[in-house]
Design brief:
Length: 275
């Protein structure tokens, strides 16, 4: 099993860190987690066709994790996708996907009729909404989904991917929480988001003291994420979804290492990690 970081950024625009998204692959399977801004370009750089993706999983429905959904769908049609999309996500995913499709319905109808491509299967959706926790099998990869704490976001999830006795846990967006500690135990790789304290400058308008406090409160901070990795006995900690996207890497590594006991991996777009 292999993890590829497609996007390690956040809502802030950064040409080196695209929107949050990850690709998990095995010999038989290709699964996407989230589809932030720029995902189709990153897939193209990897020479991975969106026509070949077996399933898409949403951690939650914040815009930075879902904004490129329609671009993903339309590009898969252009790439001759011959099967419907399997999409898994929190409560509200069906409504969200249908609204996106509705917004582009007229344009899509014109394209399908005029361009006369062999199939329109790429526009068919097979959507499953999560319960509190559960299991999904996509070919040879088993996925455990579980609720995490991203309140006030009501429905947010983390995932455990297992294949050939190897385990990858993806935190999703969350503050430290019991469910993540429970399900991430003894992960070979823990991929975790991080809010980096002391790196965002307060301003009078866009980033007030209250703004920074509230954003920090529903993420895991740089002084907390090492503890999470240590408590879960994870072999490797890979950091992603950096808030902010530009920061002092050495300082972050040193902060996290104090609790984790070893250096975390600072995720970069297109980084590949064997599991």
């Amino acid at each position: 099993m292999e993890l590829t970081l497609l996007g390690t950024g956040c809502p802030s625009v950064d040409h080196k860190r695209f929107g949050p998204s990850n690709l998990i692959t095995s010999k038989k399977t290709k699964v996407l987690v989230d589809c932030g801004s720029g995902i189709t370009q990153r897939l193209h750089e990897l020479k991975v066709s969106s026509a070949d993706i077996d399933a898409l999983f949403f951690t939650h429905l914040h815009s930075d994790h879902a904004v490129d959904l329609y671009q993903l769908i339309i590009s898969s049609w252009h790439s001759y996708r011959t099967k419907p999309w399997k999409i898994y996500g929190p409560k509200g995913t069906k409504k969200f996907v249908n609204k996106i499709l509705d917004a582009w319905a007229d344009e899509r109808k014109l394209r399908i009729s005029y361009e006369a491509r062999a199939t329109a299967k790429a526009f068919e959706m097979d959507i499953t909404e999560f319960k509190k926790s559960g299991n999904v099998k996509i070919k040879d990869i088993n996925i455990k989904y579980f609720e995490v704490d991203h309140k006030p976001v009501k429905y947010a999830y983390g995932f455990c991917f297992t294949n050939k006795n190897k385990k990858l846990t993806i935190s999703g967006d969350t503050k430290p929480c019991e469910n993540l500690m429970k399900y991430a135990q003894k992960s070979d790789v823990l991929l975790h988001e991080v809010f980096i304290e002391g790196e965002i400058i307060k301003t009078n308008r866009m980033r007030t003291k209250k703004t920074l406090h509230n954003v920090k409160s529903y993420h895991t901070t740089s002084s907390e994420v090492g503890k999470v990795a240590f408590i879960t006995q994870s072999k490797k900690l890979v950091l992603t979804h950096f808030v902010p996207t530009q920061f002092n890497k050495r300082r972050l590594i040193n902060i996290v290492k104090k609790d984790f006991g070893k250096n975390p991996i600072i995720g970069e777009d297109l980084m590949k990690i064997k599991i």
